[in-house]
Amino acid sequence: MKQLSIIEAALVDSIDAPAMLHQVLAWAGVNSGTGNLAGLAQMADLLAHAFAALPGEVTLREPATVTALDAAGREVEKPHGRHLLLRVRPDADRRFLLTGHMDTVFPADHPFQQVSWIDGETLNGPGTADMKGGIAVMLHALMAFEQLPEAAACGYDVLINSDEETGSLSSAPLIAQLAHGKFAALTYEPSALPDGTLAHARGGSGNYSVCFSGRSAHAGRNPQDGRNALVAAADCAVRLKLMSHADLPVNPAKIDGGSANNVVPDHAVLRFNIRPRTEAAAEAFLSDFNDLLRLLEKQHEVSIHCHGGITRPPKPVDARAQALFDLVRDCGAALGQTIGWQASGGVCDGNNIAACGVPVVDTMGVRGGAIHSPDEFMIVPSLRERAALSALVLARLARGEDL
Ligand SMILES: [Zn+2]
């Protein structure tokens, strides 16, 4: 472990924890559920203002077009908020990517809208841990980092997307574009455990909607002429469940379709999620699923239209990513923080960044817990703690630390 140098100690001392808390309180007071475009626009404004403290120019990027199948199987466009991008010294040789998300899982009509104090150092509130606190950590780590002379030789991009909680479908192309050519990436999801433990390897995730079109007929007069789309969808759900194994949990989640009791249903939409733990499991699934659809088309004499796919590839930890984890652990040790890690079943933008071959640690945000629930909390002293950790990691990467 390398001890803190005098310059590094000064860097850590410069972090303004009360200012961070002030920002988190203001940001958590704005509803920014992924579907609340007005709230997201307001958040983007607040963030653009806050990130103007850094060099470079803040821009808001239009979301990529995203479609979904509605209950009738029609492809409909899903509107999304704009994504915030800050580019600093884009011509530097060594560049980093820092990502966060401004959206939360709580829609505008959800009862959980207010922050409240659980005790003197624990704040309950929507998005406090996931991840408005994390955004403050990122910002203040960068503000500290910018005071170093070495910072001038490095560049970085900051992306704060508006759709992480629904899978980053409208920001995935931007994430891939920004990851390209980066030396390392840091993402500010909250720690995996309230003690600061980081998420290490992650499985992937895919979401599918499968539309089955059959032929309707009278249930009594000529059922033999009907082709039952609902039964085909149900058969598909059962067979998908049978394809499930330890490296590939499959969750058939919903079937829309059917009509009156005396009609053979000609239409159904099945939705399901998969969580491939490895790339091999993901590839095997794609091939098996394709075979299954062809079989169902034949056996049920229906036509099938499939929408969706694996949007979060599995995230194994390769040697360079492990070197980044080791660096974070060593920086923690120099700051008196014990940093461990464990595999996670969850997914995040770290999956997409790792898929571009860029080493990433994706839980650099605050310590907290109970995320995605009204019990969500942030441990307030972790704002300063984690900003110091990130600032030190950036400082040592800027100084030429290899991965
Ligand atoms: Zn999050």
Task: Write out key terms for the chains shown.
403 residues; alpha+beta; six-stranded mixed beta sheet; four-stranded antiparallel beta sheet; 18 strands; 34% helix; 24% strand; elongated; binds zinc ion
Description:
By secondary structure, the chain is an alpha+beta fold. Helix content is 34%, strand content 24%. It contains ten helices and 18 strands. It has a six-stranded mixed beta sheet, sandwiched between helices. Strands 6-7-18-17 form a four-stranded antiparallel beta sheet. α1 packs antiparallel against α10 (381-398). The model has no long low-confidence stretch (mean pLDDT 97). The site of zinc ion has 5 residues, from α4.
Offer a concise description of the structure.
This protein is α+β, with helices and mostly antiparallel strands.
